[in-house]
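Entry 14. Ran structure prediction on the chain below.
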Amino acid sequence: SITKRMYKIVHFYITFFVHFYIIINIMALIMMIYSIYAIIQEKQKSKYYKKTILYETNYDKYFTMVRKQKIVVLKKRLQLPFLKFFS
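Output, structure tokens:
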């Protein structure tokens, strides 16, 4: 009876640890798959943001150029009446 009880206890612990080991391995596999998925998503996001940043920097350069041109055109418009008056 003691050996049967010991056998049941040992059998319970062995099956428990085997199941626990299987569950831990499954969780580790799921985490590895998710990390690969997250890395792929980050690469796609970085490609998108690189394109977007390039567009925004080009647009910013264009916008500053237009602003400078507007200032030059305004100065010329203000100079024109004075030049007409003094000539």
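The chain has a mean pLDDT of 86. Will compare against last week's run tomorrow.
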